[in-house]
UniProtKB/TrEMBL annotation:
GO terms for cellular component: cytosol. Belongs to the DyP-type peroxidase family. Residues 6-135 form the Dyp-type peroxidase N-terminal domain. This is Putative iron-dependent peroxidase. Keywords: Iron, Metal-binding, Oxidoreductase, Peroxidase. Residues 210-230 are annotated as: Disordered.
Length: 307
């Protein structure tokens, strides 16, 4: 039976999201453990208080702090964020040991939950980064293209995102990958429409996929549509959302998967490219400022923390 999974993973896109990363203060682990043990109840209580907000959240830990909370067992795939580079691009792990991914239809309610969780941790967390994201038009990235179209649908979302019987101690958990991309929109907007569409392998306004034969080997959707050795599509569940100030604009990329290997393979395909070195040309217009890999345990794990 699938364990109860955290609410931030499966539901369809929200209109508002907060991605908040922290480091753990090492001499306050006992405090952090108490807070983690009560965190899924805090999420539940505030979600119940504001049913119209459709408030969802995921709380997760990275490889560096996992053993400080649970030294008996570890999720099979929990590992550092990968390092890939070509002549132009480099992606790497950056700071951030614990994450809150909070999303809802109401910014005020997202704020309330973030604040309540942060207070529960008292001084056991040090803020690394807080990114406030919004739904832009009809779920478009700030480059103007609809993002999330090819996400899995219905029951398939759970099959793609949740750990199953292959790791029985961690069934119902999920691997979350985060990357904060900052776009060079001046450079992007100097490209004509056809060049922009070729870079994605999709049309901009009508959001149609190019025929496979029309896609450049550099197209983003070419580089990220991967298959396993049996010809089955490798999939992740994306919850990326834009963020923007007047001076910095970009995308908080977020994906959930039952194994981090699929995300890692996609990122490698984007950065290193195929055998001929055809890398993802979307990366000429955006820069990854962060890279984080977390495990989002099923809710049961939190309740066993104080046993
Ligand atoms: C597809 C945007 C980074 C994985 C797409 C699409 C857009 C998009 C507009 C087409 C519509 C859709 O199916 O969602 C972006 C932007 C990124 C970014 C703006 C960064 C600035 C990434 C990264 C990964 C990724 C880092 C994974 C490592 C995918 C996948 C698809 C996709 C799997 C679907 C491909 C298909 O089956 O057609 N992305 N993306 N994306 N992206 Fe990204």
């Amino acid at each position: 039976m699938t364990q109860a999974y955290q609410t931030g993973i499966i539901p369809e896109a929200s209109s508002d999201a907060l991605f908040i990363t922290f480091n753990l203060v090492r001499d306050r682990i006992a405090q952090a453990k108490h807070a983690l043990a009560s965190s899924t109840d805090i999420v539940h209580d505030i979600a119940q208080q504001f049913p119209d907000a459709a408030l969802y959240a995921s709380i997760g830990l990275n490889h560096a702090i996992w053993p400080l909370f649970d030294n008996t067992k570890k999720p099979q795939g929990l590992a550092p964020f990968p390092h890939f580079k070509n002549q132009q691009i480099e992606v790497n792990e950056t700071a951030g040991e614990l994450v809150f991914h909070i999303r809802s239809m109401r910014r005020d309610v997202s704020y309330q939950l973030a604040n309540a969780l942060f207070q529960a941790f008292d001084k056991s967390l040090e803020l690394v980064e807080e990114v406030s994201c919004f739904k832009y038009l009809d779920n478009r990235d700030l480059t103007g293209f609809v993002d999330g179209t090819e996400n899995p649908e219905g029951e398939k979302r759970k099959q793609v995102a949740l750990v199953g019987a292959e790791d029985p101690d961690f069934e119902g958990g999920s691997y979350l990958n985060l990357m904060r991309f900052v776009h060079d929109l001046d450079k992007w907007e100097h490209q004509d429409l056809k060049s922009q569409e070729d870079i994605y392998g999709r049309t901009k306004y009508s959001n149609e996929e190019y025929a496979a034969s029309q896609k450049s080997p550099h197209a983003h959707t070419k580089r990220t549509s991967l298959k396993d050795s049996n010809g089955q599509s490798l999939e992740i569940l994306r919850h990326s959302m834009p963020f923007a100030s007047l001076t910095e604009k970009g995308l908080m990329f977020a994906s959930y998967s039952k194994t981090p290997n699929i995300f890692n393979q996609m990122l490698e395909s984007m950065v290193k490219g195929d055998e001929q070195g055809h890398y993802d040309h979307l990366m000429r217009f955006t820069t990854a400022h962060t890279g984080n890999a977390f495990f989002i345990p099923a809710t049961r794990w939190f309740t066993t923390l104080l046993d």
